[in-house]
Design a protein that fits this description.
about 140 residues, mainly alpha, 2 domains, 3 helices, about 90% helix, transmembrane helix
Length: about 140
């Protein structure tokens, strides 16, 4: 007699066998991939490492001579000093222009001078006080 139970049992066995086969094929795929990775590594070691070593040997830069290094350092120091003097001169030029503008403003309109710089000073104190002193942390 053939009942439905026997059919379901045979189906479940065949599904189990198929899943075992798929697991085995997954394992074989993984082993194929690892074998391929191994063969790639072996090929790289055999073919490319020697060429890379030759390339490194051919293109390794020589360290510069001591005299050349001293010349490079002295040249850089001279260029840096010149740039620093230029920056300092520009700073003083801008400072003098600002100070002359302040003096002119103080002589031409003392009320405007004190009003403007008083406001600037108050804003500076408020920003400084809130940020560094902690007046707002009450």
């Amino acid at each position: 007699m053939n009942n439905g139970y026997d059919l379901d049992k045979s189906r479940s066995q065949s599904v189990g066998e198929q899943s075992e086969k798929s697991r085995k094929s997954d394992k074989s795929d993984k082993s194929d991939k690892s074998e391929k990775g191994d063969t790639d590594a072996i090929w790289f070691q055999e073919n490319m490492m020697q060429k890379l070593k030759q390339f490194d040997a051919a293109h390794t830069p020589e360290p510069p001579a001591l005299g050349k290094l001293e010349i490079m350092v002295a040249d850089h120091k001279r260029k840096r000093q010149k740039a620093m003097w230029t920056e300092l001169t520009l700073f003083w030029l801008v400072a003098v222009i600002i100070l002359l503008g302040m003096v002119w403003m103080a002589e031409a309109s003392p009320g405007l001078f004190w009003g403007f710089y008083g406001t600037v000073g108050a804003v500076f104190l408020l920003i400084f006080g809130y940020k560094y002193v902690g007046w707002a942390k009450d």
